[in-house]
Amino acid sequence: MGAGLALLPWLGYLAGTLPPVEAAGWVTLDTLEAAALLTAGTRVLRQDRACRVPAAASAALLVADACIDLATASPGAERTAAVVMAALAELPLAALCLMLATSFRRTLRRQPLAPPAGQAEGGEPIGRRAPGHVQT
Questions:
Q1: Per-residue pLDDT at 78 exceeds 70
Q2: Rounded to the nearest 5°, which phi and psi values hold at 119?
Q3: Residues 6 or more apart whose Cβ sits within 8 Å of residue 76
Q4: Contact 104, 52 (CB under 8 A)
Q5: 27: nearest Cα among 42, 38, 16
Q6: Residue 115 has what DSSP assignment?
Q7: Which sign, positive or negative, has the C-alpha torsion 7, 90, 67, 103?
């Protein structure tokens, strides 16, 4: 979730410093990344299995971002910055998102969530009697 929040000021920087034609594409890509990362992060905090789809989307967007950065960077300092960002930020975060997307379900099986409100451990509604139970 922190990575998604960190992208928000970056969006303003891109919009203010790049030519409008370039800014539109980069701001759109980074906005999608931020939205996917924030969605995945909030769902992970709630231990929601639905975190897997935005985590997978985040991974795909981060890999695409790294590839586009590397392909469009000019030789020299710009290319060096693209390689460093890809190696130290975008690709490791993409790998983490991919691991989350593929393994979160198994993690939840090992650590079961508390039963929903109004249900006992076995899934029976609280206050319900088993069939044939006679109250004494």
A1: yes
A2: -125, 145
A3: none
A4: yes
A5: 16
A6: P
A7: negative
Q: Which two tokens stand for residue 63?
A: 């890999």
Token readout for 72 is 């469009």
Going 74 to 75 to 80 to 85, the CA torsion angle's sign is: positive
DSSP track, 22-91: HHHHHHHHHHHHHHHHHHHHHHHHTT-GGGHHHHHHHHHHHHHHHHHHHHHPPTTHHHHHHHHHIIIIIH
Per-residue tokens: 105: 């379900």
Amino acid at 68: I
CA distance 35 to 54: 9
Rg of the Cα atoms in the chain: 22
User: What global pTM score does this model have?
Assistant: 0.71
Residue 81 pLDDT level (bands cut at 50, 70, 90): very high
**Which tokens in the block code for residue 129?**
């009697």
> b or e along 32-49 (b: 16 or more beta carbons within 10 Å of the residue's beta carbon)?
bbbbbbbbbbebbeeeee
Q: Which of 107, 94, 99, 12 is nearest to 58 (CA)?
A: 94
Q: Does residue 103 surpass a pLDDT of 90?
A: no
Tokens of 81: 């910055």
